[in-house]
# Entry
Amino acid sequence: MVGGSIKSHPDFPIAVDATLTGVGNDYIRNDPDGKRMRLNAHGTAKDKSGALLYLNYTGIIDITEGLAKILGGAPDAKTTDFGNSFIEMRFETGDGKLKALEENTFVGAGRFLVEQGKPTTVEYRVSKVGWRS
# Structure
């Protein structure tokens, strides 16, 4: 991870508007059959309030024909749809206003964004896992 942002939905009770800081670690490995990649990423973010967040996510990505084109640098590579990349995300912080993030589990679906003249990026839509009692 070399850049990006984390923004909560306006209706989410914990307001987050953070920017990734520094350089995170992405550990990516392919399954032996070459059909999937496994992710383990770590990084830090700074909220606009000044609070720091540590984030970690693990996940799995199906290597589709479209993703193979992106990874191979094909000139006809296109943005992928959501549905082939899934993560589980956790947060840690010392900030009281964001501390409740640690008490939740989050999952996300991702896609690879291809825009001419820009580096390929990954976008995740992340949701809190929960239930109603």
